[in-house]
Amino acid sequence: MSDQFKEFVNTQQEAINLVQREKLKESLILLEEAKKKFPERLDRIGHWKAGIFMLEGNRAEAISELNEVLDRGLWWNPEILINDEELEPLKEAQDFHDIINRCTMMYNKNKKSACAHLQVEGNSQSNTAIYCLHWKASNAKDFAFQWDTSEILSNYLIGFVQSSQLYSFNSYVWDEREVVEEDVRKMHLEFKKTYDLEGKDSLLSGVSQGGKAAVELLLNNNPLGCKGFIAFVPSFTDSDDIENILQDHVKENVRGCLITGDNDPFYDQTVTVANLLNAKGVPCKLIVNKGMGHALPDDFAEQLQEAVDFILND
């Protein structure tokens, strides 16, 4: 994980801790400083600050904070603000309606021009190429930061695919399966234009919603001809989609690995999917991290290598 991204994550957690200890002023000071360090994340920081102002009962400052974000060119999916319980007292105010209208205009404008994107990192001489699908409500750049270790980048050539399905400012999702396949196909072609993939073992990976999408895409028709899938904390809500795919498609020479934590809200369904895959003839390794929630494991690089070894050394 890059130092800058790690600092932002740590700042977020520190702000949460301060709020939980009812040190609201200290959290506001911390986040105001963060706005200078991370101007590209002003939408998130400004949203957090607005929520804290509401905890103080300071509606005027909350509105001012939201407007500052919009004035500086960032915005939100309007549903994010509408569904925020901390902002509930603002919802009848004209100033808040004006903010929602501005957000709606920016969201609709940017949704029309949203397109898939590819960011490539790692070792072009590696024998293993991995296509990676980011978290829900994330992007390729932020996701790549989480893979930014020498152990990973020296061992693999990695294509981080960014969805074309806009969620909010610089934030994308994998909601529609047909669009997922189209995006991944297009970015695969972009990948091949620059890098020689001949003779490389290709794998499809993802985290959370991206992990679920990766599994479904590979099992459905495996458009990239990947040898297997690696899904970290996949957000399976049930096993019905996987079961339907397996009924319609016979899988040959495909293996996979699901990596989760026993405190992940999707843990039970992930175990069910792993058992289903094995029962249907798709070898699937299940790695369970004790005490881990919906997050990446601390020994991420080691578990990634374990998953790659399972798929390629059959």
UniProtKB/TrEMBL annotation:
<protein>
    <recommendedName>
        <fullName>BCE-2095-like N-terminal domain-containing protein</fullName>
    </recommendedName>
</protein>
<feature type="domain" description="BCE-2095-like N-terminal">
    <location>
        <begin position="13"/>
        <end position="107"/>
    </location>
</feature>
<dbReference type="InterPro" id="IPR054527">
    <property type="entry name" value="BCE_2095-like_N"/>
</dbReference>
<dbReference type="InterPro" id="IPR029058">
    <property type="entry name" value="AB_hydrolase_fold"/>
</dbReference>
<dbReference type="Pfam" id="PF22316">
    <property type="entry name" value="ABhydrolase-like_N"/>
</dbReference>
